[in-house]
Amino acid sequence: MLNFLTRRLIVAFLVAATVMTLAFVLTRLSGDLATSIAGANATQADIEAIRKAYGLDRPVLTQFFDWVGRALTGDLGNSYFFQTRVSTLIAERMPVTLTLGVTGLVIALFVSIPLGILAAVREGTSFDRAVQMVALLGQAMPSFWLGLLLMITFGLQLGWLPISGTGSWQNFVMPGVVLAFSAIPALTRLTRAGMIQAMGSDYIRTARAKGLSRASILLKHALRNAAIPVVAIAAVQLGFMLGGSIVIEQVFALHGVGFLAWESIAKNDFPVVQAVVLVLAVIYVALTMVADLMNAVLDPRLRV
Amino acid sequence: MSALLEVEQLEVGFGSRTSAVRGTSLTVERGETHCLVGESGCGKSVTALAIMNLLARGGYRRARRLSFQGNDLLKLDDRGMARLRGNAMAMIFQEPMTSLNPAYTVGSQMTEVLRRHKGASQRAATDRAADLLARVGITAPGLRLGQFPHQLSGGLRQRVMIAMALMCDPQLLIADEPTTALDVTVQAQILRLLAELQRDLGLGMLLITHDLGIVARVATRVSVMYAGEVVESAATAQLFADPKHPYTQGLLRCVPVPGKQRQDEPLGSIPGTVPRIDPGFEGCGFRERCTFADASCAHAVPQQTAAPGHDYLCRLAP
User: Fold this and answer.
1) Calpha distance A207→B98 (Å, rounded)
2) Is the pTM of this model over 0.80?
């Protein structure tokens, strides 16, 4: 178990280091930062002043290691636009994004696991085919478009839910559903496939030969094994949702990390962009580790 | 008193294309071991699964009579059948490596049977499981109860399966080739164990095998299956001494007997393979491979009695 943890930690560290490098390089590749910060009407002198003020005149490697060194101590630098510390900005916005992501995941799991089980139990029936059809449609539907459709129907026409802002839990219902919709197809299919495989296995025949109840056979013996890949993908999906919330937060005007990233890209506030990419990547890596650990809990064969 | 298990004219099919079992009859008395023998694909396992109503999806069964302790199993719904399975009738399978759930400990899988059928407490069930593990020859049962299947060898897993089948003191144990997947030394141990348990607990056992050596050692009665039919059924000694059906005779010629065989005499074999039996098939399933076959074998074959309790399905005179 300790071995398992150490291996995963080393991999996680390497991934984080790679992401830091990429985030840094990509912001540099988008053009001369000093010029774009200064804006269209700036004089050459303004640009030079900005270059000096932000330390952009130093060699690139010096800038990189300076940033990495500070990031390791938790100092992500200052935002050019908001004139505050980036870490404060992200900490302020993170609750909104996390609430949105977790809402989306919970909705996705509550929909896709029962659907997947039912489809597996009724494999080959019209119900099963309908579920697969819906899953296909869901996968093909762009989330901003679904978001707008929901807004028009439930927000404007029916007036049941607020269409923007973060005032109450109701604000998270529609964006949560939209976010969940992106994860439901994969999770449903995975549950269905896992259940079909489990139900055809020898240990399920044994469970039936033991005279166990149908509920016990399905939920205790089959689902436990079918859940192993679902858990892994669910954790990864949560990572996607947190990253993918850039679009949804924009559509529903939720001021989370995704919204912050959007603003910062538009304003060339590159310390914020770098930091958001880094933070989301670290969360993603952490979630992958959580998935591995949960797999080890669910599958005793992995606990070596 | 009625027999423990009575099967009459059992038919099993999958979809509309193949019939796996066509008119099998057999009886298991209390306290006896009834061996069902035959080569791969002749319908032995399917017969066992049909008795337990465990056929895979798409399989159907029909029978003139299927009764256990005098109760008609054909009339039971899924729930009624589930009350019997693992309780009064238990089954162990050919694949010990995959028949236990990898996600649960041995103890958890064993105790749930007793808790379900007898409403036992977890503590009582754990005690019973430990006793039975010891009974099937597993040392340190306390340790094993907390282990997962992947931590056990194939032989140990099969012992766990046997112990698990015995949790509720079944009257009937159906064992479907329980030693096929194990290596030879372990095979002998498991067989000896089954024979011992059968004797000590007074179990009725339906043992499915293709190994005539096993049959000779443990069986009270033998039914020989071929292409979905029982072609000959007799008490063990009677069958080995005086096989009537050409298929049985062929099978027995395939078994080496130390001392009886001359060095230069080749061991017998039956040419050909088991035919695919489609619905509507008439006559003897063995006729393609039988040296005695003639045109009349393509019609319905009479069941004949060679001696009391020794029946066979062939037109040849006793």
Assistant:
1) 12
2) yes
